[in-house]
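User: What would this chain look like folded?
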Amino acid sequence: MRSALNRQRGFTYMGLLFAVAVMGLMLTLVGRVWSTTEQREREIQLLFVGHAYRNAIASYFASGHRFPAELKDLVQDDRSPEPRHHLRTLYADPTTGQADWNLVMTPDGQGIMGVVSSSNAAPIKRDRFDPADESFKDSDCYCSWRFIYYPNRFMRSLAPSTLTVRPSGGAPAGPSNTFHPGRLSPLIPDSSNPASPLGSDRSLPDSATPAPFGQGSTPN
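Assistant: Here's the prediction, encoded as structure tokens.
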């Protein structure tokens, strides 16, 4: 009688261990799916923000045939009697949640032609990019997604090695940050600014809305 009771207890204990193991495996799978989904959303945000910066640089260049010396010049362009706003606000890098963009400089190092993420993480998206982003195909690093504005064919023909990339703070380039999801704040479209070149952000899904530069973009 006692022997049968002990065997029953043994089977119950093994059943509990098996259930715990299955639950642990399921939680691991759910965590991986969540992480992948989160990273895909960050990629959508990075593409949106990168396009916003590229369009703003194009608008700035079209206004005076000069590239901006600093990113803040895109938000407040004082070259004319009436200041222009090529960008609504400065956005943080969605892949790091920080204001740590690398800047693609002109060959003389005096102007900003584009921005590039400082993250070394490998992208999930490998193809099916917009024509302007065709060079992103099969990239092994977000730091290869360079959102550059080329005003003419000559500039476009320049080898990437001739374009200097430096951190937005101006310090020498150091190790890039890896992917750390941050908490995003909603971006409310500015309907009062008809001069803004960023009409496409109004159709962006809420889950893909980037956080403004320096506002609520702290890594988890």
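The first strand starts at residue 102 and ends at 105. If you want, I can go into more detail on any region.
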